[in-house]
Amino acid sequence: GQRQPIIERLTSESDRIGTTGTRDIVKGAAESMGGGHHHYNPEAEPRFDQDLEKIKQARVPLAFRDTCAHLLIDLNKCRRETMWNPGKCGHLRHTYEECGYNSYLQRIEAKVQEDKVRVAQAAAAAEA
């Protein structure tokens, strides 16, 4: 058969499992994409309550001051200490990249929920 676009698969999966958090979103995305081998990593959870002063002191560039900046501080420190050796800091890099992916999934889920509200409001307005 024909494959569904990722947004539709995420939408149908979140409808089915009642997605509420990143853990459920990651599970839903992995299952809908034929994976399911992903293990939830609490370290890679995007955080909205960042210590901005600590990020500023670590001289994290403005473009990277997002919900995963707390992980970038330790990653950049490791990179400097190992002179950017690609064989080092693998776990920190993976956790940072996973955080970015989880942040993306949260944005997708927020958009799906926003679209559901918009459709419901349009249907209510059409009835009135």
A few lines on this structure:
The protein has 128 residues and is mainly α. 62% of the residues lie in helices and 0% in strands.
Q: Enumerate the spans where pLDDT stays under 50 for 5 or more consecutive residues.
A: none
Give the rounded overall mean pLDDT.
Answer: 82
N-to-C SSE string, H for helix and E for strand: HHHHH
> What percent of the residues sit in helical stretches (DSSP H or I)?
55-70%
Sequence-ordered SSE layout with sheet pairings:
Layout: H1 6-17, H2 22-32, H3 52-57, H4 69-81, H5 90-127
Describe this structure in words.
The protein is mainly α and 128 residues long. Helices cover 62% and strands 0% of the residues. It contains 5 helices and no strands. It has helices at residues 6-17, 22-32, 52-57, 69-81, 90-127. α1 crosses α2 (22-32) and α2 (22-32) crosses α5. The radius of gyration is 18 Å and the shape is elongated.
Salient structural properties:
128 residues, mainly alpha, 5 helices, 62% helix, 0% strand
